[in-house]
Amino acid sequence: MYSFKNDYSEGAHPKILNTLLQSNMTQEEGYGYDTHTQNAICKIKNLIGNQNIDIHLISGGTQTNLVAIGAFLRPYEACICVHTGHIAVHETGAIEYTGHKVITVDSNDGKINAKKIQEVLDHHIDEHAVKPKLVYISNPTELGTIYTKEELKNLSEFCNSNNLILYADGARLGSAICVKEANLTLSDMCKFTDAFFIGGTKNGALLGEALIIKNENLKEDFRYHIKQKGALLAKGRLLGIQFEELFRDNLYFELANHANEMANILTKGLKEANCKFLINSPTNQIFPILNNKIIKKLQEKFSFYIWEKVDDKNSAVRLVTSWSTPKEVVLEFINEFKKI
Amino acid sequence: MYSFKNDYSEGAHPKILNTLLQSNMTQEEGYGYDTHTQNAICKIKNLIGNQNIDIHLISGGTQTNLVAIGAFLRPYEACICVHTGHIAVHETGAIEYTGHKVITVDSNDGKINAKKIQEVLDHHIDEHAVKPKLVYISNPTELGTIYTKEELKNLSEFCNSNNLILYADGARLGSAICVKEANLTLSDMCKFTDAFFIGGTKNGALLGEALIIKNENLKEDFRYHIKQKGALLAKGRLLGIQFEELFRDNLYFELANHANEMANILTKGLKEANCKFLINSPTNQIFPILNNKIIKKLQEKFSFYIWEKVDDKNSAVRLVTSWSTPKEVVLEFINEFKKI
Amino acid sequence: MYSFKNDYSEGAHPKILNTLLQSNMTQEEGYGYDTHTQNAICKIKNLIGNQNIDIHLISGGTQTNLVAIGAFLRPYEACICVHTGHIAVHETGAIEYTGHKVITVDSNDGKINAKKIQEVLDHHIDEHAVKPKLVYISNPTELGTIYTKEELKNLSEFCNSNNLILYADGARLGSAICVKEANLTLSDMCKFTDAFFIGGTKNGALLGEALIIKNENLKEDFRYHIKQKGALLAKGRLLGIQFEELFRDNLYFELANHANEMANILTKGLKEANCKFLINSPTNQIFPILNNKIIKKLQEKFSFYIWEKVDDKNSAVRLVTSWSTPKEVVLEFINEFKKI
Amino acid sequence: MYSFKNDYSEGAHPKILNTLLQSNMTQEEGYGYDTHTQNAICKIKNLIGNQNIDIHLISGGTQTNLVAIGAFLRPYEACICVHTGHIAVHETGAIEYTGHKVITVDSNDGKINAKKIQEVLDHHIDEHAVKPKLVYISNPTELGTIYTKEELKNLSEFCNSNNLILYADGARLGSAICVKEANLTLSDMCKFTDAFFIGGTKNGALLGEALIIKNENLKEDFRYHIKQKGALLAKGRLLGIQFEELFRDNLYFELANHANEMANILTKGLKEANCKFLINSPTNQIFPILNNKIIKKLQEKFSFYIWEKVDDKNSAVRLVTSWSTPKEVVLEFINEFKKI
User: Most exposed of A29, D183, D304, D333 (fewest Cβ within 10 Å)?
Assistant: First the structure.
């Protein structure tokens, strides 16, 4: 039974495993001072076109979020994000554990904008409430939607003029950047945020996210924060190799592009069969609305999560494609759907 | 200019000051082991009719909330409260600073109920989200509304059957209990909650809240929590004297009753003059909706806060009466309003 | 039975109670914006001779320490203090609860110096250990000893040149300043530290410590920290009145001076009777070494704490005098000792 | 140049890499519900001979320590460990960041015993100090020394009778167990502690420590703690595979045994050449005392850390062998030393 439950069901892209093997017995420095990590950082800096950024490789998304946000904020400062934001609902209060409130604003499409942020600022005006200081976005969002270059630019300008840190969770960033309509590059991500991370775990790595810090004020002593939260791997080479390979020869975007294509084929195929969607997602997570009986039938051959009940007879499901999803399986799913 | 801004503008009831004076040069044990604190605890236990409760006197409301909630929850457990809850908006993230998420549910009247809580439980089902464990209510609420005995009983049963702690912020508890329609006593508060506090600061004390812990599981080593959060006063006698006097001869309820009466007279007077209200409040905070020009005029003679904009021409204001509000001033306010 | 257990067994100096009474029914702003607090701040600034400092009134010593240190440090930064430091042993891990390590160095006399600090710095050199950032001293120390002006100046210079914050706990500061040999003024305390507090609780106030922040970098948004830790009293007037009176007409130093004098008389009287001391203390805490049988005898008429066992037959005890200790009682203690 | 700096300079044992490759494209459940993790847990339970334990796989040692200790303690409870303990000096205050004090006791050999613990208990008796609750040991210690079965049994009995949790950091546990004189098995470790971890990172894995929780009271909701601290890897298979292989066919102990043997050869060789040692270590970290000139000479061919200055002419160095240290290199080092 093939799983569309997530994009981390397989191991890693073979090129990564191959480098693991090739380099295995070479002695390297620990804690991120190995040659692979240094190579990876160098490659990413070049790709972004900015040598004046700090890059840290960290195991996973929740860990990166809590280390970064915990480091960026003073104790009474708070984050703002949409009510579906990953830090708001799926990280077991990791941000609150670092002492910071997560203020949520309602959103239909998983995205935030200047108006919603302004409303929060208007309600937090003195020391009896927290001080909103950091805007958290994810790109793509939890609903598969994306920020275009123009939208990011606007957010960035609003944050700058309101002395807010703009931080982007890029657990699936490759997928967002590979959507042509977004007109967005890694350089743009860097230009328009104070810090963001490039997700490896969900795009072909065994583990690892690359955190980019551009804002000078946020850089100081960052490795202390990583170590204190238990996030400094002794064998940093393991993280280094992931990103060294992902950013050699454009592999990162090839993999993300494949995931998007598979999702697009699915979307197109289901739409042709008159399937409705909860939301339009151009990335590798899609949310078709299916009759509950059809869902049961499909689940005999494929595994996937039910996202939410739509009405008594229908539910939205979440289908996630990945760097490793075979095209045949996608077509099989469509056929199966059409058959039913 | 008389202030209706809050119920803590004056000092303390003269009886409290008198006892401060009388007892001043007597040596007492520190840290709450003085005779006044022991007396106060004894009086409150008798009034509640339960000798098997723990009582701790703490300086203020935010401090009591953070010490109690921080003590009651394990690191990954969270509170549930209405979106206007004091811990959610007016405590500068004090609860989050102790590491715990505050999950909010929408509410028109400042009150929570089983249905709203159930929805939260339904969305927090595994270790990827926090575990909702404590229901925070305030009685009266931030909007001056109250829980009746019946409502509290229902909440209590729901919490019990869902293994949730029910905790009540009673910063203005006297005012809630003095509303006859509530049909509620201190004993009921104790019966239907796991822990709650009786507010002194807003009902005639210089400072002080009396935290009652009934649930056996929540009692252990509680003084360690108080000390660790800096809330254990060396001269605990100061807190002891406040509650010793408030609970000698029924003073606490006399004061709360006076505050309610003054608010009721205001409400009645304004209603007679066709004033609308944002919400029906039987306690000492009321929220009349006034024309902005009238507000300006009234503010020449009285100070009070504008609560929220209602439309382009009108705003709701908050008028707070207290144990010390003179009846003449209340009548003067009504007259002034009628004149305008 | 008279208690020499501590300096907070009585209420407050009568002048403070008198002002409480006189001002009781005047309406005041809440949260430290009352006229008394503003007056107190003004008086202290004038006395120190520096208008460019921030002053915050906070209930107690542990609370002041945790709010201040929690505010001053970034998450991975640590305090250094002697192993007998109040934050190290008598605050229930309050500093650690704010997330910061307290590094201790051994000390015989309760005092720290540059050499001891340098050793700590030498062992904390990279991100695998915390970053020592704040030096905590108390003046007088837990052993009643004091820092002279010269010693403080040296510490200050060392801290400045090593980018360390120097913070002084002044729970009994009056007592230290009233020792003539110290040659130290409030202005010096301000000059040589980044922040310090002037203790009220142990020198005639009902409660309250006045935190002085001189270092510009430590001032920002400080009221947010106070509120978040539950330390912002609604009736700030209560704190304001304490310090308004203590710093009107030199009362603060008169009281501290009295406490010192009473301790000096005790010391002199006991020494005349050949009593040895654990340490030489010129302030209001003294540590005579007494035969255990004599201790038992004395405890029939006076209460005091046994500090530590010296040998099988003798123990050091702690005798604390205060602003309110009567001279007759002191003489009585000496006589009793001589008699035995 | 060969490095004796640590035991994590190479990648992983080839068998682990091989399984990574073989299983790479098989879809697995995320977050530790994969078949490899389940296999690994099963193997470890069988080896320990206790099915009633909980096992969690976590990336690294600091992370395991902070998740475990943060989960096991209530806010005011503290750890006790020796002054050289890893959590006390080399984890950047990670434990304090979770809010808990680390109380240290002096020790010459890196080991703690009942007497030292009792002294701490004697000084922590009420709510003005933290409550010591957890004894942290590491086996082997930071100085390479080990606890024998008898010593562990005694510690265990003392902790049990004093209601203390005994927790063992086993970052190099294999090395301790492979010392025959210790007479210690994994089953003993489980029998005599409440919780401990089996280190993978320093014994042939890419990353990963296996935390064993035996004490029922410490098990509840543990995955919430892991997730909240960002330690729940999406591709848990990566951790699963490490321990599946290490505990298939006794590999874990073979590797540890090799590391010990290499260290023993080094020790023997150096002693034959009249080298003194800082401490007797039977495990894979040894601490010879060398003349500073000899150190410089040796560092031309081998890299290793200087541990501490012994006198003006000599220093103790740390040599660490590992699962992958070639015997030839060890012999070469001895020869080089003898030559010089």
Answer: D183
Token pair for D239: 């951790």
Q: Phi/psi at B12 (nearest 5 deg)?
A: -120, 165
3 state SS of C318: strand
DSSP D303: E
3-state SS, residue A224: helix
Taking a C-beta distance cutoff of 8 angstroms, is the pair A319, A286 a contact? yes
Q: What is the pTM for the complete model shown?
A: 0.97
CB C133 within 8 A of CB D92: no
CA C289 to centroid of chain Cα atoms: 24
Q: CA–CA separation, C279 vs C123, rounded Å?
A: 30
Sign of CA dihedral D301, D306, D311, D312: positive
Dihedral, D5, D10, D16, D21 alpha carbons, nearest 10: 160
Residue written as token pair 């609308």: B276
CA distances from D234 to A11, A21, A60, B187, C98 (A): 11, 22, 8, 50, 30
| Tokens standing for residue C193 | 């530290």
Please tell me whether residue B22 adopts helix, strand or coil conformation.
Answer: helix
> What DSSP string runs through A8-70?
-SS---HHHHHHHHHHTTS---STT-SHHHHHHHHHHHHHHT-SS-EEEEES-HHHHHHHHHH
Q: How far is CA C28 from the centre of its chain?
A: 30
d(CA D134, CA A36): 39
d(Cα D174, Cα D183) in Å, to the nearest integer? 13
What domains are defined for chain C? 2-7+251-339 (3.90.1150.10), 14-246 (3.40.640.10)
Name the pLDDT band for B246 (thresholds 50, 70, 90): very high
Query: Other CB atoms closer than 10 Å to residue D61's CB: what's the count?
Result: 25
Q: Which two tokens stand for residue B326?
A: 């003179």
Mutate to test the interface with A, among C224, C227, C229, C233 (most CBs of A within 10 A): C224
Residue appearing with tokens 């390297």? A28
Q: Which residues of D touch A91 (CB under 8 A)?
A: 227-228, 230
Q: What are phi and psi of B30, to 5 degrees?
A: -90, 180
- Our separate counts of H helices and E strands in chain A read 14, 14
Structure tokens at D177: 């167990």
Neighbours of chain D (3+ CB pairs under 8 A): A, B, C
Q: Which residues of B touch A (CB under 8 A)?
A: 75-76, 78, 89-93, 96-97, 99-102, 123, 127-130
For residue C99, the chain D residues in CB contact (below 8 A) are 93, 96-97, 99
- Cβ–Cβ under 8 Å, residues C284 and C172: yes
Look-up of token digits 């034959």: D272
pLDDT in tens for each of the 340 residues of chain A?
999 999 999 999 999 999 999 999 999 999 999 999 999 999 999 999 999 999 999 999 999 999 999 999 999 999 999 999 999 999 999 999 999 999 999 999 999 999 999 999 999 999 999 999 999 999 999 999 999 999 999 999 999 999 999 999 999 999 999 999 999 999 999 999 999 999 999 999 999 999 999 999 999 999 999 999 999 999 999 999 999 999 999 999 999 999 999 999 999 999 999 999 999 999 999 999 999 999 999 999 999 999 999 999 999 999 999 999 999 999 999 999 999 8
User: Are the beta carbons of A11 and D235 separated by less than 8 Å?
Assistant: yes
pLDDT digits (tens, 9 = 90+) for A217-252: 999 999 999 999 999 999 999 999 999 999 999 999
Please tell me whether residue A264 adopts helix, strand or coil conformation. Answer: helix
Cα D306 to Cα B134, C130, D303: the distances in Å are: 53, 21, 10
Q: Which helix (H) or strand (E) holds D196?
A: strand D195-199
* Minimum CA–CA partner of A221 in chain C: C127
